[in-house]
Amino acid sequence: MAETLSFNCGDCQCRIKTSFQRLKVIINGEDRPITTSSDLINPQASPDADPPVLQVWGGYPLRGHVKISGAKNSALAIIAAALLCPQDCRIRNVPSLVDVTRMGQILLSLGVKLEQHGDVLDINANVIGQSKAPYELVSQLRASFFVIGPLLARLGAARIPLPGGCTIGARPVELHVRGLQAMGADVEIEHGIVHAYVTGSNRKLKGAKIYLDYPSVGATETLMMAATLAEGETTIENAAQEPEVIDLANFCQAMGAKIRGAGTNTIAIVGVRSLHSVDYTINPDRIEAGTFLVAGAITHSELSLSPVVPDHLTAVIAKLRDIGAQVIAEAPNRLRIIPEHSLKATDIETLPYPGFPTDMQAQFMALLTLSQGDSLITETVFENRLRHVAELNRMGADIRVKGKNAIVRGVSILSGAPVVATDLRASAALVLAGLAAKGKTTIHGLHHLDRGYDQLEMKLLSLGAKLQRLPNSAADADSRSTSNPVSIHQRD
Ligand code: EPU
User: Fold this and answer.
1) Mean pLDDT throughout 71-92?
2) pTM of this prediction?
3) I need a labelling partner for 438 at 20 to 30 A (CA). Which of 101, 120, 331, 405 fits?
């Protein structure tokens, strides 16, 4: 029987309801049905009216090793791609994140079977009960729009609500839609819903030559998935080259898809009749790894990280070296950061891969606030991804925004303050700033953080950071109390 659960929306905190069917969690080898939303949603995410805040006490050096989780953006695309396969898909190294849970909910809403055992997700999409994804879910997670590609390829029809804009920009989907049209789909957009369908007796998409005006990650992924089951060959020119595109291509190839060129700007896909069972392990998250490298630099701490793919972090490592940190590959999948005492300014421009990732811009901005000299940060990928500037300035940073540029004048100290996370990577930047600031930083808006960082607080605590998550009301009471908060959080 379906059970209705309610939880907070990721972007605006409205409460929504959804139903789960046929999803089980397996804990200590024992199957049990989902009974509460906390079974599914990362326990860090609170559905409470009293949302949690994160208090961070700055100035404590970090030390040790961090285990990097599976890549969020690979996981989201790969879970969508499991819709292509009528047999069992086992996906390993799945990070425990609210966004991943939401993508699972989308598949459940389509009638697909999912089972989760720790970081292993089993999906069987032999039966896809329907081709329409619910607005309540799609509006919370843009990546859920990507299911349009596999649904169309499998069923010849898909009805997906337009995901709408989000906190970092308008994020249209016309590149996805135009590519599907080039492959023979009819697309009508009515009442906010994209209805795509393929006519003809076999309802199959046809291979096509597609040029993307911009190397969109999502459009590349949607079209690559759609093309795996199309008739004939599809080429995607000016394709995104992000490692997550390669991860998705590898997953599809492991199911029998014929894909060449993933990771270059031209991807060729020869459609096959059907895909088969797979057991696949997701790559480590380069953005999580980059965030921990910045944590080392901003707290002047030596840290090691694994597993990582150092080649995925070339631009990030180059900028860390410019700023004054050594980053050493200790093993093929392990990096160590050894920061210098003083950090220097540098300029950063975000670009599609292999350029500097937009998903690391906010974290580097936090680092550059404490670097000597003036840095120019230019955000070219998203039009509204500088909202963390105001929050960093509340902590004593000196940053001015002009259009898509932020001029960061290094200061000698940041001071802890109450701040609000405006998006996922902005929330990571505020945690990093808090680790380096004098005194206590209280971060609101943690629903953003929980979308994309697996166990961030536990990982930081194990490195010696002083932080705690607590309900906002308790944090208010704590601020009024005269006790020394730091003593509460010391580990020994
Ligand atoms: N764009 C269009 N039309 C389209 C598609 C994209 O104009 O049809 C524009 C977007 O509005 C944006 C730019 O192209 O300005 C880049 O968008 P892209 O499609 O490449 O991004 P995405 O697929 O929506 C993924 C990641 C983002 C990451 C970007 C860029 C996932 C689930 N999300 O988004 O990750 O920032 O690529 O690398 O893969 C994050 O993890 O914090 C995050 C936002």
Assistant:
1) 98
2) 0.90
3) 405
